[in-house]
Amino acid sequence: MSWETVIGLEIHAQLATRSKIFSGSSTAYGAEPNTQANLVDLGYPGVLPVLNTDAVRLAVKFGLAIGAQIAPRSVFARKNYFYPDLPKGYQISQYELPIVQAGSLQIRLPDGSLKTVGITRAHLEEDAGKSLHENLQGASGIDLNRAGTPLLEIVSEPDMRSPVEAATYMRTIHQLVRYLGICDGNMQEGSFRCDANVSVRPQGQQELGTRAELKNLNSFRFVEKAIEFEVERQIDLLEAGGEVVQETRLYDADRDETRSMRSKEEANDYRYFPDPDLLPIVLDEAFIAEVREELPELPEAKRARFIADYGLREDDVDILVASRPLADYFEAVAGTVKDDPKLAANWVVGELSGALNRDGVDIDASRVPPHALGELLLRIKDGTVSGKLAKEVFEAMWAGEGGADEIIDSKGLKQITDTGAIEKIVDEVLAANAAQVQQYRDGNQKVLGFFVGQVMKASQGKANPRQVNEILRKKLS
Ligand code: ADP
Ligand code: MG
């Protein structure tokens, strides 16, 4: 029998607000434990939550970007459960009436094909605290700094059919929330996390199989690996006559396997009910229109524009639009070089990205700003420096030795375009290699490459290669 894999993802994106969703404490990452939790976050009796409008704005922005319905009225609900990192005994979330409903997102699969994934809903909720087990003997610590941090939980339809599709969808959401500036996307710090719901069913069957939920997958690779393992586990189980039980499982990256954590709660176990401390969120058209105005150009639109306006290759464009700052950087360089966007793209995708990766530097902190790179490229275009030596100039710029012109001067890298000077070098090379000259005249055209190499070497790479070729041909014929 052949099996079909079915996957739905729940992604938690931490919203980039400065303060928490229901209190004024800071959301900054990395502070000493429990220094950023106030009475509301600690769940003291008698205190009341106050909704942070920025969190609402960011959620609406996301909803508009995925063409969803923005609920004119949505409601916060209490999800009741006990855990040490949740002092109130309930999490404030949204249940029956989420703020974002029924959107969709187009994803571009590695083979280039497009697929639309339905997004059932995206709702606002607060994060819980964190249990700490390291550096404590026979005890656990509780850090409530994260309690009350705003999250957007983005719930997909069960539309993905392979681990690769799931990882691609997650990447696309990650790219989108960063474009929108609603989430920093930092997975190490837990600002972007994912639960994967996985089931299998016999090929052709309509009804969904029983699913397992894989919790807290914090990298694209782990999502793919965890699902791969889980699909195989479920198929083996079913083929051996067993049954999949609905449960929550944890992925162990070291052993590359998933393990049962707990049987899955049903929604009614949580005793959801509308939070009596909070008013419904009521949004009018004017507010939604205002947020719509703030939407930036989205990745797919940017991609199409880069291909159409700059005539770039698709794989270069995919690299350039992967993040907004890189795309902006490219456009700034292309603006300086004007008529040669391909040259700009080559250098941004090549030398610049290489240097950033090598030194682990963020594009925003690039040691060569876009206008400086643009000026170097102009020097290639006007023949001041060869494309090859320009790389040397770039490295010096990266090392902070100055601007393009300055470095070309001080290092003596200016291209030799003076015909007389090149002819002189050519004459010397021909005189020193009489045997090869004879070979060429006997009809061996390949020797030309040898001469070009010798002349370039003699000129320390500075002779203009086009002129070298011309002069050599003339003198040899
Ligand atoms: P819960 O809130 O209990 O986690 P939901 O019904 O909200 O459950 O679904 C959560 C996620 O699980 C959604 O992304 C949904 O698409 C996905 N999902 C639901 N049923 C299945 C299934 N049988 N196989 C795979 N994914 C599923
Ligand atoms: Mg779930």
Describe the structure.
The chain starts with a strand and ends with a helix. A hairpin with an 8-residue loop joins strand 8 (130-132) and strand 9 (141-143). It folds into 3 domains: 3-290, no CATH class; 299-411; 419-476, Orthogonal Bundle (Arc Repressor Mutant, subunit A). The protein contains 16 helices and 16 strands. With 477 residues, the chain is α+β, with helices and mostly antiparallel strands. Magnesium ion (MG) is lined by residues 10, 195, 213.
Spans of at least 5 consecutive residues whose pLDDT stays below 50 are none
| First and last CA, distance | 73 Å
Oligomer: single chain
Strand order of the largest sheet: 2-6-7-10-1-11-12-13-14
What spatial form do the alpha-carbon principal axes imply?
elongated
* Percent of sequence in beta strands: 15-25%
Number of domains: 3
Helix fraction bin: 40-55%
Output the structural class: alpha+beta
**What molecules are bound to this protein?**
adenosine-5'-diphosphate, magnesium ion
The residue-averaged pLDDT reads 94
The radius of gyration computed from the alpha-carbon positions, rounded to a whole number of angstroms, is 30 Å
Characterize the main sheet.
9 strands, mixed
Notable characteristics:
alpha+beta, binds adenosine-5'-diphosphate, three-stranded antiparallel sheet, binds magnesium ion, 477 residues, 40% helix, Arc Repressor Mutant, subunit A, 3 domains
